[in-house]
Amino acid sequence: MTHITIGAEKVSLEKPVVMGILNVTPDSFYDGGKYTSELKIMERVDEIVEQGAGIIDVGAYSTRSGAAFVDAQEELSRLSFAVELIRKYHPHLPVSIDTFRADVAKEISHCLGPIIINDISGGTMDDKMFETVAELGLPYIMMHIQGTPQDMQVNPHYDDVVREVREFFTERIARLNALGFNNIILDQGFGFGKTVAHNYELMDKMDSFLDLGYPLLVGISRKSMIWRLLEITPQEALNGTTVLNTISLLKGAHILRVHDVREAVEAVKIVETMKMSV
């Protein structure tokens, strides 16, 4: 599948698309607390657009390991505020909301129009999510996670991480297909219930997920799989992020979810130019 459908609009993924991150949270691991006022949010949105992103992903609940709990009403309030601003100033920009709560996704889509639903739990943290996305018909990013954000990094274990993540996707895709739903994007969930070694094994075998037939989203921007390995900080992890984004593109990624849009757009341009020369 080389496109997603957001309401009446088709977004082509023939060429990889960059998804810029807007965190309207006080405690996200890299940029928490930066974008909470209308001015700061719109400065960030304008930057994301100007640097070439095709999608913006709005998060209102930090899912870093050990992050504070945020109730549904607070999450909805934060998301609504940001999405309404984006709709006002960039009405044609596709918007993704980062939520595992079905009711939050439904309320945003009903009040503010078609969105992409980016669920870090792949439907495991809200048993209403699958019926909700099937009802709404909106693109659904199904991410793999082992555990929850509160406990996911407490000794994560797999006998075979690639096989087990594939089995997770296969089972949950079948459940959505049984509901007549097929508007799916897959995210292997780098850093979500995985050791550094698990993350790099999944990266190495990423192209083995292409035969599942759905677009692949990669979200490794400034994550601990980079800065722990290189013994640096998230603030110093841009170079490592760009290296892994480039590897992801070479292995077939369709969407890069990033903090640093310009560098990801440049990686896409270089890789696509190289492919054309073959």
Give an account of the 3D structure:
This protein is α/β, with parallel strands linked by helices and 278 residues long. It has 9 helices and 10 strands. Helix 6 links the parallel strand 8 and strand 9. Helix 1 packs across helix 2 (72-89), helix 2 packs parallel to helix 3 (102-112) and helix 6 (196-204) packs across helix 7.
Using brief descriptors, characterize the structure shown.
globular, 278 residues, two-stranded antiparallel sheet, 10 strands, single chain, eight-stranded parallel β-barrel
A few lines on this structure:
The chain is of the alpha/beta class. The protein has helices spanning 38-50, 72-89, 102-112, 129-136, 161-178, 196-204, 224-230, 238-250, 261-276, and strands at residues 3-6, 9-12, 17-23, 55-59, 95-98, 116-119, 140-143, 184-187, 216-218, 255-258.
